Amino acid sequence: MLVRPNAAKRHLQQQQRANVADKKVAAPNYFGAEAFLVLACLTVSLLILPLVLPPLPPPPSLLLLLPVCLLVLLMVLAFMPTDVRSMATSYL
Fold first, then answer.
1. Looking at the domain assignment, is residue 49 inside a domain?
2. What are the backbone dihedrals phi and psi of residue 30, each rounded to the nearest 5 degrees, phi first?
3. 3-state class of 63 per DSSP?
4. Rounded distance between C-alpha atoms, residue 44 and residue 50, angstroms
5. How far apart are CA 68 and CA 64, in angstroms?
6. Pure H helices in the chain
């Protein structure tokens, strides 16, 4: 059975169009029903639980310094200059 070159090209183009159409259809179904159910339950619990549970006592003042110290450490690390050449040679 001989296949003409034009027919083969047309067939490939139709397959590519079908693949693109399949990808467009699959994109809106990124999150399933289970994911929406979990997000809805999480939202409801965040809205209802603070109204039902008793208020907690304040944490110790020393514990309140922990997030501040972490923020300062991250800022120091973010703005610390690095020497890229020495980093690249150390892994070789």
1. yes
2. -65, -45
3. helix
4. 11
5. 8
6. 5-26, 33-52, 61-79, 84-90
Structure tokens at 43: 């939202």
**CA dihedral for 41, 42, 47, 52, sign (positive or negative):** positive
Residue 5 clears pLDDT 70, i.e. is over it: no
Evaluate whether residue 64 is within a structural domain. Answer: no
Task: Return the structure tokens found at 26.
Answer: 């699959």
If DSSP codes are grouped into helix, strand and coil, which group holds residue 32?
coil
As a whole number, mean pLDDT of residues 73-85 equals 85
Count: domains in the chain:
1
Examine residue 70 and state whether it is found in any structural domain, yes or no.
Answer: no
Q: How far apart, in whole angstroms, are the C-alpha atoms of residue 11 and residue 17?
A: 10
Task: Give residue-wise pLDDT tens across range 6-34.
Answer: 666 777 677 766 655 555 554 566 778 89
* Whole-number Å distance between alpha carbons of 38 and 44: 10
Q: Is residue 43 part of a domain?
A: yes
